[in-house]
Amino acid sequence: MLYRLIVGSLLIMWQLLSPPTADSKNYEGKADKYQAGSQYLAYPRPAYGIPELTKAPKGYVPFHMEHYGRHGSRWLLKDAAYDLPVETLEKAAAYGKLTPRGQQLLQQLREIRTASKGRVGELTPLGHRQHREIARRMTENFPEIFVPGTHVDAKSTVVIRCILSMANEIAELQKICPELIVTCDASRTTQKILAYNSTDTVAKKLARKADHFADEYAAKRADHSAFISKVFNDPKFVADSLDEKKLFEDVFDITVNAQSHDDQPDLYDLFTDEELQNEWLSHNASWYITAGNTSLTGNRVPYNQRVLLRNFIESADTAMVSPRLSANLRFGHESIVLPLTILMELNDSAVDLTDLETLASQWRNYDIFPMGSNIQMIFYRPEKKPKYTPDEILVKVMLNEDEVTLPVKPVSGPYYKWKDLRDYYMSKLDGFSTKFKE
């Protein structure tokens, strides 16, 4: 009897303490106030930490890295993002329609706008630090790769925030190991690989058609009344004279992107938890339609990054036959990291869903593409065998420095045979034109 009581109590405790699963009808994906920013989430949040890595199988050492990283934290992309909310609140202020909090907000937004001049789209000081810290952890996690004589080939899109992200990582790597052999490039040639503009017109057409699913989903979550009541003293004036939706979205973006800065004011008091959650749910659905492996877009969209994945494979093949240790680092954007992650089927990112109402319980954008997000493929070979076959090469993939599962059978933990993964990806890429006739 005592035994049954103890076992029963343990089972109850386990059920209470276990996290909700995707199958739980009562679970809806949640976002904290920082995660609610989706692509504006700063990387990494100290509260989440950097996971410990699994030791390589006995006798194996890393010798090569393939990488794609998003630029670090940045300013918003356009002057209008800072100008328009100020102009809207100034119009309301001229008619005496702002609450005391609205008046304070206007002054805060004016100061933020002034600071943004000449900076839109640029890397913030935090963005610089993020990439230096990522580079430092690369050398700590894989000291066997970053040694004198290793060739580090770095390429960036032509966008300055990506170039500066690359520059920071390279500077940190060379600070730690000055004897690295480094080459860098950022040109229209690299752009064709790192920010490939897909020629799949069918995928683009399907994605545009599917936009209405995300729009309908967002429309059901577009109650901004709590925000409006905090900022304005006359809701009718707002409804008749202002673009409520646009103002809400502009102030929301400035609020969630404050985590990209060291010194911007905290504006989260303007929003209820429900407003933050609803805005994230809407953005999560929109990003899934834009990049996800969903039947709503014919499962075609992730293949937009087929050129980049093939480049990963070809570059790795070259490294296999070279006696030199090496790392190929690429720098670009979240609009590439997201579909590439899905095309590579990292963790459960490639799940095919059509019900946006349950999407957030199984797919969350902030898990994939915060500022500074990155994919690292680490290749391992037998340590004490001067000659080895491709069958003996192992690979581990990390998303945001966290080990992931891959779509083939593992050898041990997060380690997989490169031949198995290569064959899987090449079959997938080679079958694209057959499976999806353009």
TrEMBL record:
GO terms for molecular function: bisphosphoglycerate 3-phosphatase activity. Pfam families: His_Phos_2 (PF00328). Its EC number is 3.1.3.62, 3.1.3.80. Gene3D superfamilies: Phosphoglycerate mutase-like (3.40.50.1240). It comes from the Bacteria. GO terms for cellular component: membrane. It is found in: Membrane. Keywords: Hydrolase, Membrane, Signal. This is Multiple inositol polyphosphate phosphatase 1. It comes from Duncaniella dubosii.
